[in-house]
Amino acid sequence: DQQVKQNSPSLSVQEGRISILNCDYTNSMFDYFLWYKKYPAEGPTFLISISSIKDKNEDGRFTVFLNKSAKHLSLHIVPSQPGDSAVYFCAASEGGGADGLTFGKGTHLIIQP
Amino acid sequence: EPEVTQTPSHQVTQMGQEVILRCVPISNHLYFYWYRQILGQKVEFLVSFYNNEISEKSEIFDDQFSVERPDGSNFTLKIRSTKLEDSAMYFCASTIGNTQYFGPGTRLTVL
Fold this sequence. Notes:
The complex is a heterodimer of chains A (113) and B (111).
Chain A: E1 4-5, E2 10-14, E3 19-25, E4 32-38, E5 45-51, E6 56-59, E7 62-67, E8 72-77, E9 86-93, E10 102-103, E11 107-112
Parallel strand pairs in A: 2-11
Antiparallel strand pairs in A: 1-3, 3-8, 4-5, 4-9, 6-7, 7-8, 9-10, 9-11
Chain B: E1 5-7, E2 10-13, E3 19-24, E4 31-37, E5 44-50, E6 53-57, E7 65-68, E8 75-79, E9 88-95, E10 101-102, E11 106-110
Parallel strand pairs in B: 2-11
Antiparallel strand pairs in B: 1-3, 3-8, 4-5, 4-9, 5-6, 7-8, 9-10, 9-11
């Protein structure tokens, strides 16, 4: 039962261009969404989050868009840099606090020079 | 910048043995979590802990698992009798609100 889906296992983008990572969810009770970046043998590093009351949140090169009616969110990275090459996980929770996060399977982003 | 720390970074054990994985959450955080990631699979929630008791646990967190906050800084995950399928990366996380911050993980290898 995949409540959070990342359908692209990998994505290759040229340096300087925009990277767009997508995530779909099925649980309508999710109200908080996060993106994490992960390098091999390290823990997930928090990037950016969005509450269900918003449809966009921006932090520097990273922007997350939320479309609640479509149960879809996306992470935009502009411009993409070589250090952005990593696995990106979408995660969701039903209310924060004690609730555990439900993760997608991740998308491996490769930034080509 | 405060970080979640975990020890050891790698633990090798024989099947049937007990292991304790240790975590030091960020000092002013109130909620603590354990997750695991089996090789090639997604990160899975195990348990959350608040106010010195378990708040929520997943189906994975069965009777062989337990958590404890033995003092004001450490948060531990105990696996009583390890199985081969317990081999995974185990991540600790903590938060004061909605955003969970993760430690670097402990790689558990059960032989």
